[in-house]
Design brief:
6 strands; binds adenosine-5'-triphosphate; Cyt_trans-like; Probable nicotinate-nucleotide adenylyltransferase
Length: about 210
């Protein structure tokens, strides 16, 4: 079973890496594909260019958990990086194998703003990373989908190619790429928030110095 972990990764940090590992173990994924987006549709353009964000992913994933991979298809595709296009293209390659799109709770609740969001359920399961103890009230347009598709049975994910919603409780590490960029801008140390070789790369490249 393959998991897709999308993001800007500007830069990748331990919040991404740790949650990816916990989801991999909880769901029993064979592979987690980190998919850096070229142009995020719903937010400001990333600060680091696509080549450097890819390089940072490669550095962070050296000696990584087995099964962690990078998928560059969004970087190679012009225009906004819509997840529905990405999953469609992966689906063509993998046939009927189960596919899980890994998203944070915030991203999940914002799903109705995503391009052609209803089609996502035809292409993948949604695995939602939930902070333990937090509410998971789902309202509005998403609510009927949630009611119909939510499962507590992990087995459902491996027995069908797509269509279910499954929650995984993950350790919430209060780390964000925004905060890490801020740390570099102010000349403080990002040690222990990101892998050390990545920290050195960012310093060498003089990334995130200007706002
Ligand atoms: P930024 O601060 O620039 O918004 P970010 O740290 O949220 O960046 P992204 O690359 O945008 O990083 O994140 C991709 C996905 O990773 C998001 O869907 C988000 O839910 C998840 N994520 C990011 N940081 C964490 C974290 N500390 N714990 C759990 N999930 C996270």
């Amino acid at each position: 079973m393959i998991g897709i972990y999308g993001g800007t990764f500007d830069p990748i940090h331990y919040g991404h890496l740790r949650t990816a590992l916990e989801v991999k173990e909880a769901v029993g994924l064979d592979e987690v594909r980190f998919v850096p987006c070229r142009l995020p549709p719903h937010r400001a353009a990333p600060e680091a260019d696509p080549e450097r964000r890819l390089r940072m992913l490669e550095i962070a994933l050296q000696d990584a958990e087995p099964g962690f991979r990078i998928d560059t298809r969004e970087l190679n595709r012009p225009g906004p990086s819509y997840m529905v296009d990405t999953l469609g293209s992966i689906r063509k390659e993998i046939g009927a194998r189960p596919l899980c799109l890994i998203v944070g709770m915030d991203a999940f609740l914002g799903l109705p703003y995503w391009h052609r969001w209803r089609e996502l359920f035809d292409l993948a399961h949604l695995v939602v990373m939930r902070r333990p103890g937090t509410a998971s009230d789902v309202l509005g347009e998403l609510e009927p989908y949630f009611r119909e598709r939510r499962t507590d049975q992990k087995g459902t994910l491996s027995h069908q190619p797509s269509g279910s919603i499954y929650f995984v409780d993950v350790t919430q590490l209060d780390i964000s790429a925004t905060r890490i960029r801020e740390i570099f801008k102010t000349g403080k140390s990002a040690r222990y928030l990101i892998p050390e070789p990545l920290r050195r790369f960012i310093l060498d490249q003089r990334l995130y110095l200007s706002s």
